[in-house]
Amino acid sequence: MILRDIAKKILEFNKIAVVAHASPDGDAVGSTLGLTLGLRSIGKDVDVLSKEPGPEVLSYLPLYAEYGELNTLKEDRTLLLCLDCGNKDRLSMERDGFSEIFKINLDHHVSNEMYGDLNYVDSKSASTAEIVYELLEELGVPVTEAMAECLYTGIVMDTGSFRFPSTTSKTLRITSKLLETGVNFSKIQRMLFATSPFKQVKLLGRALMTLESHFEGRVSMMNLEANDFNVLSISDRDTGDIVNYGLEPKEAEVSILFKEAEGFFRVSVRTKEYLDASALCAVFGGGGHVRAAGCNIEAEDLMHAKIRMLDEIERMMTS
């Protein structure tokens, strides 16, 4: 399925809902709001669905207040656009009406399960925001500064401000087009990468105090306990880029952050060159990108969760 055909199909609908994955990140929120703005500009009636608000750091985005306000499909919706989510079970919405509605799945994760009635999955795109930009072009929507602010946010978050190897020449061409709208990219960079709430800085300190290395420094591990989040009154999903700090040692190839939840651990994984983070997380039912992925691990305690992860890493390193 080519993007032009996706665009033609979307134009057949007027009552639309847009949803992305649970635990929304910059690409999920930016893509959702950018596409919503674009569709509304051509007269479409669009709802934003999410069970939770976007990260507070993204509150500068237009339509941010709508993210997390509605999580159930209205009876009059006839099209559901699913963004940046490889697994339908991770879509951040209630399931009433989900089976019946026509679904279009737009994503860039190689692990996508192709659950839509129509699917467009481009794993060569560094972000879903890139795909949304191309879709808006196919729809004939002029990209405004407000749309560009959303899409630029999605791109810089998923590329680590163009540091990750997923960044391509196409990524930079699209970014150039977004900058031509007059979007204040320096403000966005400052908000995303040089500004953090005090409690998030404190959380980083707690995580770094647990930093340990394995396999002669090739694997870094950190953890956060449930009490860390309770004491600081911060969400266990609001850990920002803490996991990336584990890759700073020269010898580190893999960084893993464990976050204690009820009966399991949320796990974030980042890698440099040799290990596929998505393949590693897929062993535990998760997924994502080659260099950034996540999963949940059920274990009786942190030690057993670490052992399971280390055993799998060792198997992958020696196979």
UniProtKB/TrEMBL annotation:
It holds the Pfam family DHHA1. Residues 15-155 form the DDH domain. It comes from the Bacteria. The lineage of its organism: Bacteria, Bacillati, Bacillota, Clostridia, Eubacteriales. InterPro entries: DDH_dom, DHH_sf, DHHA1_dom, Oligoribo/pAp-PDE_c-di-AMP_PDE. Coiled coil: none annotated. This is Phosphoesterase RecJ domain-containing protein. Residues 235-305 form the DHHA1 domain. It comes from Proteiniclasticum ruminis. One of its GO terms (molecular function) is nucleic acid binding.
